[in-house]
C-alpha cells in the first residue's frame, strides 16, 4: 500500500495502540495494559503501521524463548483489504525471526474467517480450540501455530 510505514512501537504509542484496539475489537485492552506492554514488558514486541502518517494498525507478540505468542493484529476497518495486516505480519515475523524465534502461535475467533485465511497464508495451522475463550460473548478461539520446518521434515 502506498504511504505505508511500519515501525517499532514506542512507549509514547500506548494511547494509539489502545485507540486502535477499541476501534477493532469487542474485548479491547486498556491504555494501562499498553503502557505496561511498551514500558515494562521485556518480552513484548509491537509494530505500528501508519499510512501517510496516520495510524492504520498494529501487531504485537511476546517473545518466549524461541516462540512468539502473537497477542494482537489489528487494522482499522477503512484500511482492511489493503494488505496492511499482511505487511504487519510479514515484518513482525522477519524482525523477531532475526532475534531467534522459530515458531509462532495465536488465538483467533472461530468466526473470524478473514483472519484465519490470512494466518493460513502465512503457514499457520489450527492445532486446538480454546472453548469459550472470549469474555464478551463466550466464543471459542482456534489455537493456531506456525513452526519452522526442520530439514528432515521437508
Layout of strands and helices, then pairs:
Elements: E1 4-8, H1 14-24, H2 31-39, E2 44-51, E3 54-64, E4 67-75, H3 84-97, E5 103-109, H4 113-121, E6 125-130, E7 141-147
Parallel strand pairs: 4-5
Antiparallel strand pairs: 1-2, 2-3, 3-4, 5-7, 6-7
Report on the structure:
The chain has 154 residues and is an alpha+beta fold. 28% of the residues lie in helices and 34% in strands. It is built from 4 helices and 7 strands. Strands 1-2-3-4-5-7-6 form a 7-stranded mixed β-sheet. Helix 1 crosses helix 2. The model has no long low-confidence stretch (mean pLDDT 94).
Order of SSEs, N→C?
Answer: EHHEEEHEHEE
How many E strands? 7
Shape call = globular
Major sheet summary line: 7 strands, mixed
Strand content: 25-35%
Mean pLDDT: 94
Total helical segments: 4
Radius of gyration: 15 Å
Q: Span from first to last CA? A: 33 Å
**Uncertain runs with pLDDT below 50, 5 residues or more?**
none
Assign a percent range to the helix content. 25-40%
Class computed from helices, strands and strand pairing: alpha+beta
Strand order of the largest sheet: 1-2-3-4-5-7-6
Kindly summarize this structure in a few lines.
With 154 residues, the protein is an alpha+beta fold. The protein has helices spanning 14-24, 31-39, 84-97, 113-121; strands at residues 4-8, 44-51, 54-64, 67-75, 103-109, 125-130, 141-147.
Comma- or semicolon-separated keywords:
seven-stranded mixed beta sheet, 154 residues, single chain, alpha+beta
Amino acid at each position: 500500500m502506498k504511504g505505508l510505514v511500519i515501525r517499532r512501537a514506542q512507549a509514547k504509542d500506548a494511547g494509539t495502540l489502545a485507540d486502535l484496539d477499541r476501534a477493532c475489537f469487542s474485548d479491547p485492552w486498556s491504555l494501562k495494559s499498553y503502557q505496561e506492554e511498551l514500558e515494562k514488558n521485556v518480552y513484548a514486541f509491537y509494530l505500528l503501521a501508519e499510512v501517510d502518517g496516520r495510524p492504520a494498525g498494529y501487531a504485537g507478540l511476546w517473545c518466549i524463548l524461541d516462540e512468539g505468542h502473537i497477542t494482537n493484529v489489528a487494522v482499522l476497518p477503512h484500511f482492511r483489504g489493503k494488505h496492511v495486516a499482511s505487511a504487519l505480519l510479514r515484518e513482525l515475523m522477519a524482525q523477531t525471526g532475526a532475534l531467534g524465534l522459530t515458531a509462532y502461535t495465536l488465538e483467533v475467533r472461530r468466526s473470524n474467517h478473514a483472519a484465519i485465511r490470512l494466518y493460513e497464508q502465512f503457514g499457520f495451522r489450527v492445532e486446538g480450540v480454546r472453548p469459550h475463550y472470549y469474555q464478551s460473548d463466550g466464543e471459542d478461539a482456534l489455537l493456531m501455530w506456525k513452526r519452522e520446518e526442520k530439514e528432515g521434515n521437508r
